[in-house]
Specification:
Blueprint lengths: L2 H16 L5 H21 L4 H7 L50 H12 L3 H12 L5 E4 L7 E4 L4
Antiparallel strand pairs: 1-2
Length: 156
C-alpha cells in the first residue's frame, strides 16, 4: 500500500471520527504504524483493524472519537470532504455499527480477575493465613497476582 493510499484512509477516518482534517502530527503518527496495524489485523482476523483504530476503537481519554460507532455515546459519522486535490463527489459513509468484541485471551481473563480483586489482595492473603495457620509455616504466594505473598507462622 502506498503512502498516498494510507493518507487517504487517514483523511477519511479522522474526518469521520473527529470531524476535522488530520494534521501533520496525525500523519507522522499513523503512517509509519500502518503496516503493523494491517499485520495485527491479519493476525487476529480483523481485516479493518487499522481503520477501526483510527476511527477510535480501543481509544481512551482525549483520543475517544467524537463521531461514529466508537464515540460515547455512538453517533452518526461526520461527513468527509474530498481529499485535497480530488474533485468533490458524493460522500458515502458506513453505517454505525456496534464495535467488534474481541474474544478474551487467557491473559485477558487473568487481568480481569485481577482487576476485580485489586485492592483486596491483603484480605485474600489474610483469609489464606486464617485457613492455613496454625498448622502451616512458610510463605504462601498467590499465582498471577504480582508479588502477593504472606508469611505464616504457627500460633503458639
Amino acid at each position: 500500500m502506498t503512502e498516498d493510499a494510507i493518507r487517504r484512509i487517514l483523511w477519511r477516518c479522522i474526518w469521520m471520527s473527529r470531524g476535522e482534517a488530520p494534521v501533520d502530527a496525525d500523519y507522522a503518527y499513523w503512517v509509519p504504524m500502518w503496516p503493523g496495524l494491517v499485520a495485527r489485523g491479519v493476525e487476529i482476523g480483523h481485516p479493518n483493524y487499522g481503520e477501526d483504530r483510527v476511527l477510535g476503537w480501543q481509544a481512551g481519554g482525549a483520543d475517544v472519537a467524537r463521531f461514529g460507532a466508537y464515540a460515547d455515546p455512538p453517533t452518526a459519522y461526520h461527513l468527509v470532504p474530498p481529499y485535497p486535490g480530488d474533485d468533490s463527489g458524493p460522500v458515502i459513509l458506513p453505517p454505525v455499527v456496534a464495535p467488534p468484541i474481541p474474544l478474551p485471551t487467557p491473559v485477558d481473563v487473568l487481568l480481569e480477575a485481577y482487576k476485580r480483586i485489586e485492592g483486596k489482595l491483603d484480605a485474600v492473603l489474610a483469609a489464606i493465613a486464617a485457613v492455613k495457620a496454625p498448622t502451616y509455616e512458610g510463605t504462601v504466594q498467590v499465582p498471577y497476582l504480582g508479588t502477593g505473598k504472606v508469611t505464616l507462622t504457627p500460633k503458639a
